[in-house]
């Protein structure tokens, strides 16, 4: 994610609502402590740092998942990042059972470009994004296809967690080369052909015989 937000790592911010104290530790977890003298006062984890919430190609929040068990599921929390004068946990709610919503204010997200996803990616993934933009512009893929490619890019960058099915699919894809368009296939073929020519020249220079297989 955005490197400038890493300075929040190792810090914790608390917020007291009624008899509950909430604590948010960025890139770590969210906890809740019931501040009463009841013998069974609740104190537990509402979520562990899991992945980013990305909307309109912008980081809008953090998902803290797989917290303490709650009936048939586990507790989870979405932390909304909003511009503020200081770093503070400003608001907590529970929109649905065991799913919490926190609002975290910080001056680190006030700049209009501070939460853009594109600059945080590697050059290779930025190129992949550029290619997807071009394919969309040339109407070679649909808007849905474009969004699917972006999701794959975010997963590859580690910003989103891939599902188990997706991981298995990724493993099987590694076995065979797959191209979304004929143009992409032709481009890759041309690049590989050029690479083979260069390798042949190198082998000749070092007096190494090149044995072509029958499927060349």
What is the topological layout?
Blueprint: E1 13-17, E2 20-25, E3 29-34, E4 43-55, E5 58-65, E6 69-70, E7 73-74, E8 76-83, E9 88-96, E10 99-106, H1 123-137, H2 143-156, H3 164-175, H4 182-205
Parallel strand pairs: 8-10
Antiparallel strand pairs: 1-2, 2-3, 3-4, 4-5, 5-8, 6-7, 9-10
Helix pairs in contact: 1-2
Detailed description of the structure:
The protein has 216 residues and is an alpha+beta fold. It folds into three domains: 3-106, Cation-dependent Mannose-6-phosphate Receptor, Chain A (Distorted Sandwich); 121-173, no CATH class; 177-207. Helices cover 30% and strands 31% of the residues. It contains four helices and ten strands. Strands 1-2-3-4-5-8-10-9 form an eight-stranded mixed β-sheet, with no helix packed on it. Strand 3 and strand 4 form a beta hairpin. Helix 1 packs antiparallel against helix 2 (143-156). The longest helix has 24 residues, at 182-205. The radius of gyration is 24 Å and the shape is elongated. The mean pLDDT is 87.
